[in-house]
Write a structure and sequence with these properties.
Elements (H helix, E strand, L loop, with lengths): L7 E7 L2 E7 L3 E5 L6 H15 L3 H8 L1 H4 L10 E7 L2 E9 L5 E10 L2 E4 L21 H10 L2 E4 L14 E2 L13 H11 L1 H14 L3 E5 L9 E2 L2 E4 L5 E3 L5 H14 L8 E5 L7 H14 L4 E6 L2 H4 L7 E7 L2 E6 L6 H4 L4 H6 L8
Parallel strand pairs: 3-15, 3-16, 8-14, 14-15
Antiparallel strand pairs: 1-2, 1-4, 4-5, 5-6, 6-7, 9-11, 10-12, 12-13, 16-17
Helix pairs in contact: 5-6, 6-7, 7-8
Length: about 350
Amino acid sequence: MHDVALKKVTIRGFKSIKDCTIDLGSINVFIGPNGSGKSNFISALFFLQNILDKNLQRSVGVAGLPSLLYGGMKKTKSIEMEFFFGNNSYGFQLVPNDSGSLVFANEYYGWNDVKTNVRRKVPYGFESEYDNGGSNNINRYVRPVLEAKRWKVYHFHDTTASSGMKQAGMLSDNVSLHHDASNLAPFLHMIKNSYPESYGDIVRAVRMVAPFFDDFVLEPNADNSGLILLRWKQIGLDEVLGASQLSDGTIRIICLAVLLLQPPELQPSAIILDEPELGLHPYAISLFSELVHRISADKQVIISTQSAELLDYFDADDIIVAELTSDGSKYTRLSSDKLRDWMDDYTLSAMWKKNIFGGQP
């Protein structure tokens, strides 16, 4: 696994998570019933993403402070997280202030068991100052990883007519795929022109799920060449169609294909997906799983799912079961060795439905 993949995450006092430490591998599939905390783990990684983007206050404003603290403000006085990669880590402690927001009580870099505080210009400041670095040689190993934002959360849930992926986008907004694919057309346009082989892989993958699909039509707007809209053609028809004429499942598999088949140098080191199976046909789930395995030798993949069927495309050792206990969310990685006798007769999805390895309400 790559040196900047997430090896381990420690979370305390966040949403349904009182205190947990989770070891991560190349493929990590979180499953659990509603309210178990599987999506809250993904939320913690998105929370990190917002912190590195200097958007902590916006994140708190959207979610509301009480909902971020485990058990509310009376029960929990701080949120602590630490993210481990290679021999290094980045961590922080956030505390509520009198105005109902969160501020940084501490922020640090780590190397093995050594921690060095980030040089903060503003004590109890509203945003991260990770880019100021610490006071020793750990800087050169940690800060570049954080600045590169190599761990990214994606969710392609919003496929409504007003979603970004169906709206015209700035042609120049093509450096990386946005977390919600709101720059899908500009990004695809860039890939088609700069990475034709990867573009061909994407088109072929979409055709496997949607045999009627011919190709994308990626041309700048005739009235404003700085804008581009996602359009496409159907086999056997001359008419150019819009994104609104794609089913929800088809446009989601397009987003997933673009994410997973874009050139590796454009992908983050850790690709984190919240419920990617939503709206997908069983064959599309099979294709998605195949693409995950294809990239997992070089990239880390972390998935939250409610789909029992998705489990059958992965090994037991890839699965992490989320359960909500009286002591908060708990996460248990399955073991192929421990399930060996069961696996002779049952698939992972059947074992999940029979509650053999827990996680059911």
